[in-house]
Amino acid sequence: MTAPSLILLGTGGADPRVAGVSHELRAMMHALRPELDVAVAFLDEGYPRCLQVAGKLAKRGVTEVVVVPLHLADAHPRQPETAALIAQIRAAHPGLRVIAAAPVGPEAQLLAVVDQRLRDALRSRRADQLDGLVLSTEPTTDVRSNALIARRARQWSTRHRLPCLVATGGSGPSVADAIRSLRAQGRRHIAVGSWFLTADEGFRRQAALAQSARAVAVAAPIGAAPEVAEIILGRYVVAAMDLIDLDVVETPVRHLSVVGA
What is d(CA 137, CA 203) in angstroms, rounded to the nearest whole number? Predict the structure, then answer.
C-alpha cells in the first residue's frame, strides 16, 4: 500500500528566506524517509498554494494526502484557516482523500533549539550577563495553545533559574511590554528567545521592538532544525493512520477434515 503524500503547509513572504525554511524541512523529511512523497505549499503569501499542489498530486494519481501545518505556537488540530483549506481541496478534488494533521505546535523538545539560538545570539553580542528572559512567540487565540506556551516559558525559566515572560504581540503583551515588566522588577540584562519558525514579518516586528527596548540579545528563529522535522514526521504518521480504511474483509474459513476423526 502506497503511503499518503505529505504537504508541508508553511508561511511565505516577501523575503525568500522565509519560504526557504519550508524547503529545507522538505529536504530533511526526504533524508528521514526517502520513500515519502513530500511537497511544500503556502497558506497565505508565497507560491505554490496548497490547492494548486493538491491538484498536481491528484493529476499524478495520488489518492491520499496529509497536510501538516508548520505553526509552532498553535497546537489546535482544527485551525479555522486550515479546516477551510481542507474543505476547499475536498470540494475541488472529490477523489482525493485529504486530512490535516495537528500543527507542529509548542512541543517541549523545541526549547533546546530556542536555547541554542539564544546562546549563539549572546555569543555574537559578547553578552555575559543575564538576569531576565522573554519568550517571543506568534499570537494565537487558542486557549490550550496559550497554556502550552506559558508552560514552556515556565520550563525555560526553571532551567535557567531566571524569570521569563511570554510576549505574543497581537492582542497580547509585546516584547517591549515584557521587557518593561522585567525592568520594573529590577532586571537589567534581558534576552529574548524566539518561538518562531522563520524570520517572518511577526518575528521581525518583535525583534525590532526588543532591540528598541535594549534587549542584550535576540535569538534567531528556530528554523529548519532536526527537531522540527522529527515532530513533522510524528504528526504525519498519526494523521495517516486516520486515512486507513478499517473495514475488514472477512476471509472464509476452510474446515479441514482430520484423518481418523
Answer: 8
Closest CA to 22 of 3, 9, 5: 9
Neighbouring-strand partners of residue 39: 7
Q: What amino acid is encoded at 36 in this protein?
A: L
How far apart, in whole angstroms, are the C-alpha atoms of residue 191 and residue 219?
8
Q: Under a CB-based contact definition with an 8 Å cutoff, are residues 177 and 167 in contact? A: yes
Coil, helix or strand at residue 90: helix
Task: Reduce the DSSP state of residue 101 to 3 states and report it.
Answer: coil
- Taking the C-alpha atoms of residue 149 and residue 210, their distance in angstroms, rounded to an integer, is 19
178 phi, psi to nearest 5 deg: -65, -40
Backbone angles phi, psi at 82, to 5 degrees: -70, -40
Q: What is the pLDDT of residues 207-233, one digit of tens each?
A: 999 999 999 999 999 999 999 999 999
Cα(55)–Cα(223) distance, integer angstroms: 28
Cell of 126: 559578547
Distances (CA, A) of 248 to 1, 40, 97: 15, 34, 19
Give me 26's grid cell. 522538505
Ordered DSSP codes for 144-207: HHHHHHHHHHHHHHHHHTS-EEEE--TTS--HHHHHHHHHHTT---EEEEEE-SS--HHHHHHH
Cα end-to-end distance, the chain, whole Å: 42
d(CA 135, CA 38) in angstroms, rounded, equals: 31
What does the pLDDT look like over 90-135, one tens digit per residue? 999 999 999 999 999 999 999 999 999 999 999 999 988 899 999 9
Type of residue at 32: L
**DSSP code of residue 14:** S
